[in-house]
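An example makes the point: we print one protein in full, the chain in one-letter code, the fold tokenised, without further comment:
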Amino acid sequence: MLLLRHRWFYLSCLAAFTAGHMVNYAVIIYAQEVIGSDLLSGIGFGLCFGPPLLLGWYAGVLCDRLAPGRLILAAQMVFIVAALLLWLADRSVAEPGSRVPWLVLAAALTGVGWSFVAPARMAALGQVASAEELKPASVIFNLLVMFGFGLGPLLIAVMRRNFGWPGVFCGAVVLLALASVMLLGVHTRRSGKVHEPVATEIRQGLAAVRANPLLAQLMVAAMAGYLAMGPMTVLLPKLAATRLGLSELQRGYFLGTLALSLIAGGIVALALARRAHHGRAILAGTVLAGVLLAALGGAHSTAVAVVLLCGVGIAGGFALSLIVAGIQAQAPEALRGRVVSMYTIISQVVPAASGVVAGALVQGFGVGVALAACGATLGLVMLLNAGWMTALRRHRG
């Protein structure tokens, strides 16, 4: 079984992604509830995922040059520094407003960490798993990414309830340390090829994507799919606290529901991978996720909100799992790091940009309008994409 065969790599992924998303959510929730600024929460989230737009290209080149495991360890150290900065600000700066520079710096460092850890882990998976294992191994990997995305806020709620914000930041540090220790037993190798200038190697990666219509269209589908992730990260805590009136622990459970639904969507993708028409499933899943996210903007009861949130998670998790598997399968081995880095740039920069927009929308129009606008945009964009994505429509998997 893949999970058992590569257990240390997968356990390390789970711990690292959970800790990383704990830091992301901590920046957002801390800005909203301690500093009292929705706009700062959106900016903080943008900083958490914005740096890959610049650094991600270089990260992809390094993934094809160096052993990805070494890059992962270095990136996780950056995450640890970011979490410790948040802990230090909370403990030593008395006035919440004076903690803003610390929060901004920690968010930016988190973005640097994501720039390298995400493509390095995907590149490492290409070395850890055999060619026959790569598609199902990629779906499992994406399951763990989504699990960490949803588990992060749940752990924040539990740690805050028992240990306060210092416990949240220290918990993230402990998880990152464990992720690093577990990775020590996973062997990755560096490339033996002669290196060319960085700009040349980046252009080679871009040319490989342009030359493969299916790979290019999978990247565009990923852009549309990730439009929902930023708004959900920024707006769901606000929805739970204001309109639904949930307690701190209940908010954690509400946000944790997203984890379960994303995992359910990934499991459905894993179960149907051999039977489903991948291209049509990706298109249908992303459109459905957009429609349900827009409907979530009108929810006024917890029960309705939970049902809609589960629908968004299942549809989105299903589509994104198939997208990741398709990109890994289509990526040329010699250029894998550069190709998957483009995907990770998309998976981080698109949520960052949409998160900043969502923060501005909720500041000006309220959480309901912000959710409806973001969901409608996702559904409309994917419907328009379906008209010209002939390679994706024909992609059977």
Summary: The mean pLDDT is 87. Residues 134-183 form the longest helix (50 residues). The two ends are 21 Å apart (CA to CA). Residues 47 and 357 are 13 Å apart (CA to CA).
